Every structure is written in C-alpha cells, then in structure tokens.
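hey so u asked for the seq, here:
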Amino acid sequence: MPKIFLLLVLLLFPFVIFATRISGVVSDESNTGLAFAVVYVKGTSIGTTTNSDGFYFLDLAPGNYKIGFQLIGYQQIERTITIAQESYKLNVQLAPSSFLLKAIQINAAAEDPAYAVIRAAQKRRKYYLNLVKSYSCNVYIKGMEKVTKYPPKKIAGIRVSIGGLIDSASGILYLSESESNYYFSQPDKVQEEMIASKTSGKKNGFSYNRASDMDFNFYESAIKNTALSVRGFISPIAPAALRNYKYKLLGTFQENGEMINKIQVIPKRKEDAVFSGVIYIVENSWRIHSTDLMLDKNAGIEYVDTLRITQEYIQVKDSIWMPFKNNFEYIFGALGFRGKGVYNAVISNYRLEDISSSARFTGAAITFSEDALNRDSAYWESKRIIPLTQAEIKDYSWRDSIEIVHSSNAYIDSVEKIKNKFKWNNIIDGYTNESSLRKTRFEWKPMYNHISFNTVQGVVVAPTFVFTKKIASLKSIEAGGTAAYGFSNKAYYGFGNLSYTYNSKRFAKLSLSGGKDMLQFNSNVISPLVNTLYTLLLKDNFMKIFEKYYIRMEHTTELMNGLILFNAVEYADRNPLRNTTSFSLIKSNKEFQSNDPLIPDNQQFAFFRNQSFHVEAALQFTPYQRYYFNRGEKLLQDSKYPSFTLFYKRAIKNILNSDVDLDLIKLGAEGNINWKRAGVFHYSLEAGRFVNRTQMSFMDWKYFNGNKTLYSNFSGKQFQLLDYYSNSTNNEFAEIHLQQNFNGAILNKVPLLKRAKIQELITVNFVVTNGNFHYEEAGIGLQKLFIRVDYVFGFKNGVYSDSSLRFGFLF
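ran it, structure tokens below
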C-alpha cells in the first residue's frame, strides 16, 4: 500500500501547483509609497492594489509573467519576471506622467480641444455601454472609516464619551473586508454572492460591503446611487452633458502606443448633480481610460460631505476594457466629529460569458454562502488581496480580543442585569428587558403614547406590552396585549395577540388575536393624539368609534419570490356607542358632533348591534422582486416594477348568528418610477366593487382616507381635504394617488434657495364612486429632511370646493 501511494504521488507531482507570493512596494521617485496603485498580470484580470502604505502582494503559480503597475497620474510600467517556489520581492518606482498639449492653437474665440474629445466619447458611449452583454467576476472590498477630529467633551451641556469605541492612536472607527462573486447581464440583471465577510470586532463578521453600491458606470447617462441621493448624477459623457459641464484639456500622454487625453471636468452650475475632477479618454477608440472625479454637497449627496471616485480600467479581452479598481474616499462629520472613509474594491477574474438565462438571477440582490460569516484568520490570510496596514492589523487584534470578552455569557449577563434594572419612572416612560442568552425581549410601551381623549370615552389610558422570543434561526413567537379604561364611559376593554413566525425568509407567519376593542369606523384614519388636540382645543371631535368583541386568525406566506398570499377569518360582535362627555379646554358655544359618522346631529345610536363572520384572501405580486437576507430576515428592496394586489372578502350570513352578507373584490397597483435626474414618481391605484351587498352595516362600507386637520402623515394614499365618511360607498369605486418628488431639480436653480436642499413635490388625488360622484385634489409641497408642507386645492365634480395648508413629520 505505501508503494502504491508513493507511485501516485510521483505520477501526480508534475500537476500539483504551489502558489508563490510576489510582494513589494510601489513608490514614487522620492520612495514614498503610493496608495491603491494597480498591480496585475498583463493579459489577464488577475491582480491587486497596494494598500495605503504602497505595499502589495500577489499569489501566482510558478512561471513567466509580465506584471503591470499603474496609477492615475503616473506612467504605466511593466516587469517581466520568472518565479519558482520561493517568494519573490519586486519593488518598483512610478514616474509622473509626462503630459503634452495637442498641437492646436487656442485663442479667445476658439473652443478648447477637450470638447472634441468629449463629443467623440459621447458618440461611442452606447457602444461601450452595451459591448459586454453579460459577465461574472470576483470582487474584494476593504472598507475603513477613521476619526480625524473628535468632538468637544461637552455638547449642549451633555458630556460626550467615546471611550472604548475608537483606538485613539489609529482613529479607526470601522474596518471590514468582503469577498464576493458578482454576476451581471444586460440590461439590469445583477446578482452578488457573498463568499466571505469580516468586520473588526464583530463575531458574525457581517459587513455592508456591496459591489453594486460601488458600481459607478460612467457610460450610463445618469448614474443612480440611492445610498447617496434620490436623483441620479450626470455622467461627464452623457448625451446632454455639455449643458452641465465645461471641459479643459490638461494634456496628453502615451501609454502602450495609445494617446490618453486628460480632461478636466468643471460644473457650469455647482448646484447641479454633477461631478468635478478629471476623466481620461483614449484617443481614436474614445473609451474611458480612468476617472478621478468628485461629488460634494452642492451635487445633492447625503450623509457625507465629499466623495472622490477613482477608477482604473484594464484590458480583459481584445478591445474589451473593464474596471479593475474602484476606490471611494469620502469625508463625513456630525456633532463635532470629523472623519474619513476609504472603500477600495478590486474587481478581478472577469469571465465574459453568456449568463443571461442563468438560474443565479433569482431576485436576491445579495446572497451569503453557508460559511461566509465564519471564515477564520487562516482563510483571510490566503484570500486577502490587499495587504493590511500595521494600524489595521492592530485594530483587528484589539477589537477581536474585546469581542471575545463581550461575547462571554458572564459579561453579557452582567451588562444586561444593569441595563434591565427596573425604575419606577419606567411605568411612564417605558421599560425594556432584553436577554441575549435567553433570546427574549419584553417591552412595556411608554404610557404617554397611550393616553388620549375622545368624546365617547373621555380620558383613555391604554397600557401596552409586547413579548418576543426567538426559538430558532428563522422562527420566533410574539405576544402582546393592551388593557384600557375610559374614564367618562367607565368601561374597561382589552385585547391581545399571539403570533408565530415559522420561516422569516418566506414571511411565513400565523397570528391569533381577539378581545374587546374600540375601533374607528374608518380604520384609524385620524391619530388619537391629533384627535385629542382638536377635541380639547377646537371642539372638533373627528374620531367616530364603535365597540367590537372579536376573534381573528391570520396567515401570511410567500409562495414564491414576489408572490405573497394572505388569508384571514374573523368573527365580530359590533355595538354602537354614543358621546358621554362634552368636556373641552376652551369656552365656546360650539357643539360637539354626535358619534354617528353620517349624521352629525344624530344623538342616538348610529347603527343596530350586529354580528359578522367573514373570510379574507389577498395575493400580492411584485415581478422580479429584489431582496437580500440579513441574519435570516428577508429584506425587500425597491423594485422598478409595480406591486399588484388582488383582494377578496366574503361575509357569510347565519354562521354564528352573523347578520352580514356581502362580497367585495378589489384590485390595486402601487410602485415608483425613478426618473433619475427628475426625481421619483409614486403612484397608487385601486378599484373595487361590492358584487354582493345583500346585508351590511356602515362599518362594512368602503371608506377613503380623508383628512380635515392641518396635520397629515403624507402616506401616499391620503386625500388631504376630503371628509372622512360622507363620500363612503357600498357600491363600485376607484381611487388614484400620484406624487412627483423632484428632489430639488427645480429649486436648486433658484439663487436664494439652491443651497437649502429643499425638495419640491406635486400631488394629484382622484376618487370616483358609483359612477357619478368624483372628487379631485391637486397640491404643491416642499420637503426638508423629515418636515413637509403642502398647499392643496380640492374639486367636487370638477368644481372648486376648498383649499388649505397641510404639514407633517415624515417619521
């Protein structure tokens, strides 16, 4: 047996390939290391970049290679090497590019020669955009954020402490690495598979590195990145770019027999969503060679002050060049902090293959391999592309050692014992008891959120609690309850719910709820807080409620990606209520309305007691729904396709003495259209009909979300001036809600407002009932951060009826 084994080893030895590590430093002529220089094997897309100190390494099988070294602003060089089994040291120096001006005379009346280059690149833009139909590649990303300026010890009199969060020597706040497989197919199919993910000081290693977030394709006319802005950014070679940019030829240089044009990109108007910096265009082929472009607050980016994007392309096949390095550098700051972030992506091992019909495109924006979050240090030593700096090595060691302590049961138990300590003021401002070891969470909701006033119950106090327990990776249970008392009608009520999530990846959930509740006829259309203020201060009691004893069971599951099925069955005993108080904080002869939604002067009961047994079913379908998983939870992303909903309700008479007999069917569609430069257009459409209305009560009718207060939640499905009940129907109906958010595309051109970053909006709402009554609204609005103000005009059957101001907070 040993002889056979030895013979096999001797036969197979020539085919066993051991990798050899090439390493060194890429520096400038003064021996200063050059950060993020590209190092790759010529004729392939295998390579790496230097770290921030200029150090690199590259693992290759023994053989002969031409190694290319390049960096924006420096002359590209190559070295031919032969490597055997031993490690190989290769240090190189890059000299600055030697720029020459084209032999074109520029006088006061002449156009800068850069414009001719840009026009030629514009003509070839679509060709390069569609040249590669589909491909796959490997992406390695290293991200790091560090603090460059610390806040004062006190802010607004409050002491600020950051002890234990940041290594004071390096200033590193966040450090992560990831390795993924990336798949793309025209026009917009994208799939990313996370192979490995590591975050300094995090046991599970989850990072938010995504290749798609760093995909700035300047062949696109408008580059969309929702992490930075709702609007798109105009590419320097977009078809209409000359309206937004000025260009200047800074010089040309030769590289591999080709002439490269270095063109300065200058915004004509700083407030446009445009770049500044330099773009390099290859003469004759007019393709992008590399970019060094900048975005700042003037361009409308959020969350960071400036963002620098540097890209370098390499040849992967014949005339096909693809981005090899994507480098993001940004400056951020808040509350006295200032910091810098650097994300460096190396895109390698391009495979230009037809994967357009690949089963990989399942709708998952990003998936994780089984061991992606559990890779050990030995794995990263063998797979890491960009070397760590000494500061990064220290940060991993420091944070990981702290994490070992913090993840111990003894430490967790001691911290949570302090955190979970109950104080008497928690009865009013809320209390949370959370156990990581038992995977439980108990929450007592703040009482000030559950105290209100209405004319039926008077002062209402409704303490509420929620308990959750995770019982497996995809399974959890939740129980909650509310016990309440109305001081005017002297009535108790309470209800609870119990739910079991048995597969969080498929939204699979079974729920049971029941009890005695006080409900609005028009499903919580006005918040208790707003109703309290209007009732006590203005004597406008808009809220109309009834009493309901009920038991209800619901089930939700995802049948396939984008297709969700909902079912419910409910039995309810419904009782009418009347006002029991006329208390108000103001002295006025104004009388409160009755609790009858349709007849304000009716002081009797609005309806007779009745029972209802009904079943519901709904299908929601979103084509090509995009999503990703975060620790077992499926999170949906915005889709460019609408979500369609089909809803059916059947109330069955005589089951458990049910009085109601009806059939309701509804069909709806909702979605967003991203216009890139012009902002986002939102639409919501719904139409339905009671195909059977043999016997029903008013709470079974179709209501529309009206509003008679100055405050609005701007839900996108609300009429701002419509009455809550008078236009309800028990027949056929249709409603449309449209909203265009220009996201500053108009106001950023107004001199006094362009720096305010105010978003402008236009809304249109429309409803028609029974084929004859129709109501329209048109509004204009302004939004800044989470505050929004609209002015709305209403029309009944085409005739102007009312106009008013509405404001709200978007949280």
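Helices lie at 2-12, 114-129, 377-383, 390-406, 409-419, 426-429, 528-538. The longest strand covers residues 134-149.
lmk if thats what u needed
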